[in-house]
Amino acid sequence: MEVNDLFALVTVANLRSFSRAAETLGLTQPTLSKRIARAETALGLQVLDRAKRPISPTPRGLEVLQRIGLAVEILRDNQSSSSNIGTGDSVVVAATDELTSTLILGTSTTFHRKMPGVALKIVSSDAEGPYGLLEREKVDIAILHAAPRGRELDFEPLFLFERVLLTPRGHVLETKQDSQITWGDIAAFPLILTSPRIQNHRLLEDELAKREIPYRVALEVHSSTLVAKAVSSGLGISVVGNTSALLEDQGGVTTKNLSHLMPRDVGGIAYRPGRPLSSATQAFMHELAEFCRNRSGLPVPDFEREARGDNRVTAPTLSHPGR
């Protein structure tokens, strides 16, 4: 998900005109149209109603623009001026497009109000894994769905990552209690899956294969943000992470928690041990923890309760708040 594509989308929505937006951004209209198409594909919904004059956001598009508009403009402004910013005046973060939409855009507005001179740079870890980016020192920190295993990295826990079943509204599984849903129930319906490189895809297929349960894949898409659109259209059901579920249009889908069938992971921030973090990076980590605790809608871990088997969760605290 490119910030420039999202900024183009916000600009068209604000000016309500492709031609005026193209002139403002210094782009040709075909180039602008491609950016808008990429942004809408990444978000998984049609944001602009092109049939209206002047162009207007769709109802769902308006909700998304109100949520991300200011954050995108701030990110774009800082990205444009980043070449003039010295060492220590930027925070470089690796994250998937999904986590960027769910967590970083929600955090960036507050962060930039407190530290307006700092550039926040997002490097997508969808194409290149976060561990390689950290090890080659291309980023300061990485936001992960699960704690790193078998790697020498420091890790700050922020949220519980759980798998959920996504079904269309009115689906027969909607009436079942979450804990009563079985692998047989899931395999009985066409499945919509993300790329095989996504862990949820591999876990789902491994569990079904282990139980020798036949299943049918109706559709495979490259991005988790597109899954809900396919599910709400009635093409099938899907298993996604709860971070993806936060992006979904809840008017068209229902979620069911699958913690009784699939593992829960602890997501958070990873960084290289022994390497001092800048004050700006520490400030961003603090704002991200506050966002997860108070505004993200995600459950957050309490390790003592997890060890006792108590599924209730409370807010995390950074283990190195002053570093």
Describe this structure in words.
This protein folds into three domains: 1-74, Orthogonal Bundle (Arc Repressor Mutant, subunit A), CATH 1.10.10.10; 81-161 and 265-323, D-Maltodextrin-Binding Protein, domain 2, CATH 3.40.190; 163-257, Periplasmic binding protein-like II (D-Maltodextrin-Binding Protein, domain 2), CATH 3.40.190. Helix 8 (199-210) links the parallel strand 8 and strand 9 (217-220). The protein is of the alpha/beta class and 323 residues long. It has a five-stranded mixed β-sheet with strand order 4-3-5-12-6. The chain has a three-stranded antiparallel β-sheet with strand order 10-7-11. The longest helix has 22 residues, at 59-80. The radius of gyration is 20 Å and the shape is globular. It has helices at residues 3-15, 18-25, 29-43, 59-80, 97-114, 130-135, 183-187, 199-210, 227-232, 242-245, 279-294, 303-308, and strands at 48-49, 56-57, 90-95, 119-124, 141-144, 154-161, 163-168, 191-193, 217-220, 238-241, 253-257, 265-271.
List keywords for this structure.
323 residues; Arc Repressor Mutant, subunit A; D-Maltodextrin-Binding Protein, domain 2; five-stranded mixed sheet; 12 helices
